[in-house]
Write a structure and sequence with these properties.
single chain; 301 residues; alpha+beta; Diaminopimelate Epimerase, Chain A, domain 1; 18-stranded mixed sheet; 6 helices; 42% strand
């Protein structure tokens, strides 16, 4: 005999079905163990699956995020997708107007939203303020990591780990054609991980397919079960901070990063930086969502 648990399937960071990043959301998952959640995430084999639980008194809902390989402390597209599901599909009323508070492993995370009747016009998550961590000075090594030549990496900007809850190695690449052909060297990546943990490799260029977009990127994280991700919200916060820190772009208004085009899952991720007294005070990432369907999983007793 087996129990069942229902899930909803969303496409996140897209306004078109079958684009963006897929997300499964399991409601009322308090009875599941972490081991069961991980097994379910492996079975679905999406980049992330979310399990909703009763929250503490302060938060609106508690969410746990699993890749097929591990539990994450926070993540972008699960946060945006879960917020959309709660506000649009479940119609919950958050404790604070215009703000949804989500309890995650990293702590309580704020999501700004605008709702007009039943329509959600804006969802922006606040990511933790950035930590600028290790710089990879050996650009020949970094080029080998993503299987391109050293001169295809931007000369004037560093390859550096930036952390807004998850540490990503940000790699500035000169051209769109270089980004489109790159391939992660898994063996070399494993050697780097032996020295320092990073959530993923985020390579980007300022050359874009759509002229209205700011960046074109690709993100790889095979060690957590994500060989390539079609849309990575948790990496676009660090990317926005990187662009701001090295004066590569003005992020005071909403800018759009494109991702997933090489996977035939076009994604658009909104990003914004707010400042106070010359320092970053808020890191905001958001986007659109599409509810694509649902189903149920049988849980053996």
């Amino acid at each position: 005999m087996a129990n069942t648990i229902k899930f909803q399937l969303l496409d996140v960071f897209t306004s078109e079905p079958f684009g963006g990043n897929q997300l499964a959301i399991f409601d009322k998952a308090d009875h599941l163990s972490a081991e069961q959640m991980l097994k379910i995430a492996k079975e679905l084999n999406l980049s992330e699956s979310v399990f909703l639980n009763k929250a503490s008194a302060e938060a609106d809902v508690k969410m746990r995020i699993f890749t097929p390989g591990m539990e994450l402390p926070t993540a972008g597209h699960p946060t945006i997708g879960t917020s959309y599901y709660l506000l649009k599909e479940k119609g919950i009323n958050p404790k604070k107007e215009g703000e949804l508070l989500l309890e995650q492993k990293i702590g309580n995370l704020k999501v700004q939203y605008e709702k007009h009747e039943s329509e959600i016009s804006k969802i922006l998550m606040e990511q933790p303020l950035p930590k600028f961590e290790q710089t990879f000075k050996d650009k020949k090594l970094v080029a080998s990591l993503i299987s391109i030549e050293e001169d295809e990496i931007e000369e004037d900007f560093p390859c550096r780990i930036v952390n807004c809850g998850n540490p990503f190695l940000i790699i500035p690449v000169r051209t769109l054609s270089s980004i489109q052909k790159l391939k992660l060297n898994n063996e070399l990546f494993s050697e780097i991980l032996d020295e320092i943990f990073i959530t993923g490799v985020m390579a980007f260029t300022m050359e874009t397919l759509k002229p209205e977009h700011l960046t074109h990127s690709r993100m790889f994280a095979p060690h957590i079960g994500v060989s390539e991700d079609p849309a990575t919200g948790s990496a676009h916060g660090p990317l926005a901070c990187y662009l701001h820190n090295y004066n590569m772009a003005d992020l005071s208004g909403l800018s759009i990063g494109e991702q997933g085009y090489e996977m035939s899952r076009p994604s658009q991720i909104k990003m914004k930086i707010e400042q106070e007294e010359g320092k970053i005070s808020k890191v905001l990432v958001g986007g659109s969502c599409v509810h694509i369907g649902g189903g149920e999983i049988r849980i053996p007793e």
